[in-house]
Amino acid sequence: MINWLKSKRRIIIAAVSIVIVLLTVSRTYAYLSTSTQTKENKFDYGIVNVTVKESFDDKTDIRKTDWVKKQVQVKNDSLSGVLKVAPIYVRVQLVSNWVDDESNVLAVDTESIVRYHLKENTGWEKGPDGYYYYTKVLEKDEVSPILLEGVSIGEEDRGQLPEKGRLVIYVLAEGIQSTHQAVEEAWGMSVGENEVLRIK
User: How far apart are CA 52 and CA 38, in angstroms?
Assistant: First the structure.
């Protein structure tokens, strides 16, 4: 009988303890759900944006001249936000095609015959991947030095060109925030002294 009373007493104590815990949890939850206000955090991320600035002579027929002017620069049009990504590095890829009057690409191997006349000592370097890298940081609204001054096709190669159509040079520019990690992960390049890009 004494054992039965002891076990009954333990059951009552356990039941009372469970009730107390449940009441405490429900009161705490009720308090938090009625007293705690949610606050929306808005983060304004910076946006990397580049614009290609070109000056070229589209009236000159490259089949009849030694050289056609086509100057290329890149402008940092990034929008800075909380993350302040406005300073960037830029790279450019030059792609040539021969197109007809409707801008359809024709089967002409322009990549092997077009010569790019690059401006020297401006901070632009050609990488092993075919891109041209501006090795310095480009600040917000800053315009890079001139990369390309003009294009030409050698006299011996002009005979391969169709009588109709024209040469088109596409300038494909990219920008990336000027952090060492971003440059290494995305482009496989490293940053050296004075934030100068090292072309591998």
Answer: 44
In 10 A of CB 53, how many CB atoms?
15
Q: What is the pTM of this model?
A: 0.71
How far is C-alpha 115 from the chain's CA centre? 28
Angle at 108 between CA 106 and CA 110, to 5 degrees: 120
Q: How far apart are CA 169 and CA 95, in angstroms?
A: 6
Decide if pLDDT at 53 tops 50: yes
pLDDT digits (tens, 9 = 90+) for 163-173: 888 888 889 99
* pLDDT of amino acid 190: 86
Rounded to whole angstroms, the Cα distance separating 182 from 87 reads 12
* Tokens coding 92: 């450019």
As a whole number of angstroms, the distance between CA 93 and CA 37 comes to: 51
- Residues 122-139 have a mean pLDDT of 93
Question: Token pair 């100057």 is at which residue?
Answer: 71
